[in-house]
Amino acid sequence: MNDITQTSSPTLPTFVKIVEVGPRDGLQNEVIPISAQDKVSLITQLADAGVSYIESGSFVSPKWVPQMATSTEVFQTLTRKPSVTYAALTPNMKGFEAAMAAGADEVAIFAAASESFSQKNINCSIEESITRFEPILAAAKNANIKVRGYVSCVVGCPYEGNISPDAVALVAQTLYNKGCYEVSLGDTIGVGTPASVTKMLQAVSARVPMAKLAVHFHDTYGQALTNIYAALQLGINVVDSAIAGLGGCPYAKGASGNVATEDVVYLLNGLGIESNIDFNKLLSAGWFISDKLGKAPISKVSNAYLAKAQ
C-alpha cells in the first residue's frame, strides 16, 4: 500500500484551479428562465465560496440562446471581488464588443475538433471558425484582454464517432499560436474514458504545453471523474466544471450535464489537492440554483449531503 502511494502521489498537482462554467455553459440550455438577479446571486455565492474564475455569461443572439439574453445586466449588476475573474463567451466581434461594454474581465472563443460538429453548431468549417475569431484575438490583444480557447468533441463526436487525437492537437495548437493563453479540451458528449483521454492529452501536449491546457468533461457515461483523475496524473491542473452538474449540449443528443463542481472538489479534497474552495458554501450555491430550476442537483455528492441532512 505504501509503495502505491509513493509511486502515484508525485504525479498529482498540489493545487487545481476550478473554472466554473455553470452560470453560462450550465444554464444556457435550461428551459426555465433564470432572472439576472438570480444569476448574480449564484455568481456571488460561487465567488464567496472561493471560486476564482467564473464564466458569468455569453454575448450571443438571444434568438439562439434566450437564457443568455440578460448577460449585459448580469455583468453590470455584479459586485465584483478583485480576486475573481468574471469571463464571457464571445462567438463573434459583435459579442466581444458587447462583453467589453459590459465589463467582462476575460473572453472565451470556441472551435471544434470535428468538422461535422463545427458545421452543425456554427455552420462553418473548423478553419473558417478560427478565421472568424482572428479579429477578436487582435482586438483583445490591443485592449490587454486575455482570451481563453475551447475545443469541443476532443474524443468523440455525435456525427463522426471517434475523433483522432492528432486532429484535436492541431486545433488546440492553432488556437494557442493565435493568442489563446489557455485551451480547454472538451469531451462534449461525455464518451471519453481514461485511455482515450490519455491518448488525446499526450497528442495535444506534444504541441501545446501541458501548463496551458485545461479539461472540460461531461458525465454522460459516468466517466467524468475518472477522466479528470487521469488528466491530473498527466499534469493537468485546470478543470472546468458546473455547479450542480448543470448543462448539456443542444447538438449532442443524450449528452448530460457538465461534471458537477461539488463532485470535483470532493475528489480533490479526498486526494489532498488544494482548490481554495469552501465546500459547504459550494454545496449551498448548488442547492440555491437547483431550487430556482425546480429540480434536484445532478451532483451525486450534493444529493448525498442533502440525504444526510434530512
Structure description:
This protein has 310 residues and is of the alpha/beta class. It has one domain (2-309): Alpha-Beta Barrel (TIM Barrel), CATH 3.20.20.70. The protein contains 13 helices and 10 strands. The protein has helices at residues 2-8, 22-26, 36-48, 71-77, 93-102, 115-122, 126-142, 165-177, 194-205, 224-234, 261-271, 279-293, 300-309, and strands spanning 17-20, 53-58, 85-89, 106-112, 147-152, 156-157, 161-162, 182-187, 213-217, 238-241. The protein has an 8-stranded parallel β-barrel, surrounded by 8 helices. The longest helix has 17 residues, at 126-142. It is globular, with a radius of gyration of 18 Å. The termini are far apart.
In short:
The chain contains 13 helices and 10 strands. It has helices spanning 2-8, 22-26, 36-48, 71-77, 93-102, 115-122, 126-142, 165-177, 194-205, 224-234, 261-271, 279-293, 300-309; strands at residues 17-20, 53-58, 85-89, 106-112, 147-152, 156-157, 161-162, 182-187, 213-217, 238-241. It holds the Pfam family HMGL-like.
Based on the model shown, name its key terms.
310 residues, two-stranded antiparallel ribbon, 45% helix, globular, lyase, Aldolase_TIM, metal-binding, lyase activity
Chain-wise SSE layout:
Layout: H1 2-8, E1 17-20, H2 22-26, H3 36-48, E2 53-58, H4 71-77, E3 85-89, H5 93-102, E4 106-112, H6 115-122, H7 126-142, E5 147-152, E6 156-157, E7 161-162, H8 165-177, E8 182-187, H9 194-205, E9 213-217, H10 224-234, E10 238-241, H11 261-271, H12 279-293, H13 300-309
Parallel strand pairs: 1-2, 1-10, 2-3, 3-4, 4-5, 5-8, 8-9, 9-10
Antiparallel strand pairs: 6-7
